[in-house]
Amino acid sequence: MKRARRAAPGPLPVLGLLLLGALPALWTVLLRREVAALPEPRPPAGQPPGRLGWGRSSAARGESGGGGQKTFRTLLAVPAAATDREERDGEEQLAVTDSQPPADTGSPVERGIFWSRELEEQVPPGFAAEEAAAWLSAARAARVASLERGGCGRSSNRLARLSDGSRACVRYGINPEQIQGEALSYHLAGVLGMQERLPPMALALVEARGRQWEPVREELRGSHWAEGAVVSLTRWVDNLTAVVAPAPWGAEASAGRRLQPLSAGELVGLPPSQLVELVQWSDLILFDYLTANFDRLVSNLFSLQWDPRVMRRATSNLLRAPDGGLVFMDNEAGLVHGYRLLAMWDPYNEPLLRSVCVFREGTARRVAELHRRRSAAAELRRRYRAREPLWARLGFLSERQAELLQARVDFVHRHIAHCRAQ
């Protein structure tokens, strides 16, 4: 009797064993395909990739990114708007920064997008809150002892000597919305935590027979100011000097190139004085975007079309105090006048904002809070009404302007979250 032979294994079990052995390699291939399929960041709709301020990441340019130090160009020149996931990730990361490991000692940047605490501590204090409050109280109570021409901008403005011995620029706007913009910009800076960069400012009511203006009644007649007009009193500051925009906003733009930041290595090698100034410039550009102020660096960029060296000259309405602190002067174009002209000036304001991807952590936190609560206009209104007795004379933002302010806060928040996601 013959023994039954064992049947040879069929083709299906053998194929299953082969597939099981190939699974690790197949999984690796699939992962690589998923990574390769991720889309590159794109500029916002309506903005060509070559527009001012648009910068590609080092990976997109084919540069090495194998775990080395990121270039400052990558940090400061990123694509436009983040995705919803990037925004959520950015909010989570901002909320847990205190648990992050400490940054390298001596590095000017912490956790990828924040100026180091050591560097921020070197920024000149500017106009301290207590000092500003004391001057505002004294200026509102003082009489105007004299009015002089010159030194305060347009010919309709005056340099006032007050009875307490201090001096102030009295600005008489071409129309009331300029004075409104000046006042609201000053208090928005307070909401954002950067009011120390703006000289103290108060509103005043022009009344020739009133106590405050009685000593200069004759001068008022020659000023052509309207009775009952609202003007702004801004503290005069001695020994201010002009400011030329630093790289990447100065020489490169003047040479006709797109705004490109310094590399990380060059940033580390910069002297502390230049780094301290860049900290303040990051606040300035963010502030001017939120207020849509076109009468500072944006106006210089606009003038490049007929003056190629304008960026090598003084920046409009920006001065330097003797201690090195920047002073954000004359913000009349902000919020009200600027919001009426967004279509004309945002092609310059938006690329400027995108050229910055390193921020003061306190500024980023305040923007995130205004975004989360959707409270930008409400916070501004609350502060304005509490600190400016004459606020009702000029009123507040319209509903549409309030919506624009919140939309711009949201845009800045998305930009910061996108920088963090990089």
Automatic annotation (TrEMBL):
Residues 48-62 have a biased composition (Low complexity). GO terms for biological process: cell-cell signaling. Residues 39-109 are annotated as: Disordered. Transmembrane segments: none annotated. InterPro entries: FJX1/FJ (IPR024868). GO terms for cellular component: extracellular space. This is FJX1 protein. It comes from Chaetorhynchus papuensis (pygmy drongo). The gene is Fjx1.
